[in-house]
Amino acid sequence: MQFDTKIAVVVRTDLEPWQKLNVASFLASGIAAAFPACIGDPYEDGSGTKYLPLIGQPILIYGADRAALSRALDRALTRGVTPGLYTEDMFRTAHDAANREVVKAVSRTELNLVGISMRAERKVIDKIVDGLKFHS
What we know:
The chain is α+β, with helices and mostly antiparallel strands. It has four helices and seven strands, in the order E-H-E-E-E-H-E-H-E-H-E.
């Protein structure tokens, strides 16, 4: 099935494995919150056990160094795409309000990005992530 939109998550490649998973999870939750229509129906197995609904389209995960991550953020913003973000400072906080505070304390050009997420038309996402490789 071909979707009109793409969901992309870009994660910095020099993170610890647990950090990469944490960042990708938080960033996917931002997509779900901002685009509730991308959430599918709840799941149920053959025994009747109920499960939570999931985002109903693929999420493409890219790897990037600091410079490429900043470039992808700039490309998203210049194309009118509002991204989710995760900064290195957020690893040292314990709750959502503190996360917002550490982001607010730094100008955009000084953000120590470790990940961004976005959902937009396929061609727009392709231009934003141009040159990035899928995360390995």
